[in-house]
């Protein structure tokens, strides 16, 4: 018998959704992806705390809505984070500028400031085209 039994899928889902509940922002596309991000002030770094597609993505967005966590509709960033950042991992260097803008959007929303449409445009512009899995030949 193993000391590290394989967790039950419901347990994994519970851990994932618990992590999503502690995030600062969820980056999503309308249907397929959701990536929950947190920011550690002590480390000065953002990290993916939960990510999913399909039903898991829907659940992550539901948890965000229940907790008042902003869901930023940025499909290209959601796809890039899902494909290139590990869950519970540091954000790849080439996506850090876009993630910083997503966190800025979340901070503005949390503070009740009016949404700045320029923030989303800058966020999208900060993503290198080769990191969009839909246009990249790398995959």
Kindly report how far apart the N and C termini lie: 38 Å
What would CATH call the homologous superfamily? secretion proteins EscU
In what order do the strands lie side by side in the largest sheet? 4-1-2-3-5
Unreliable stretches: 1-12
**Biggest sheet character:** 5 strands, mixed
Taking Cα atoms only, what radius of gyration do you get, to the nearest Å? 15 Å
How many DSSP helices?
5
Number of strands: 5
| Helix coverage percent | 40-55%
Going by CATH, the architecture would be: 3-Layer(aba) Sandwich
User: How many domains, in number, for the residues?
Assistant: 1
CATH fold name, please?
A: name from scop
Helix and strand run: HEEEHEHEHH
The overall pLDDT average reads 81
Structural class: alpha+beta
What general outline do the C-alpha atoms trace? globular
Estimated share of beta-strand residues: 15-25%
CATH class label: Alpha Beta
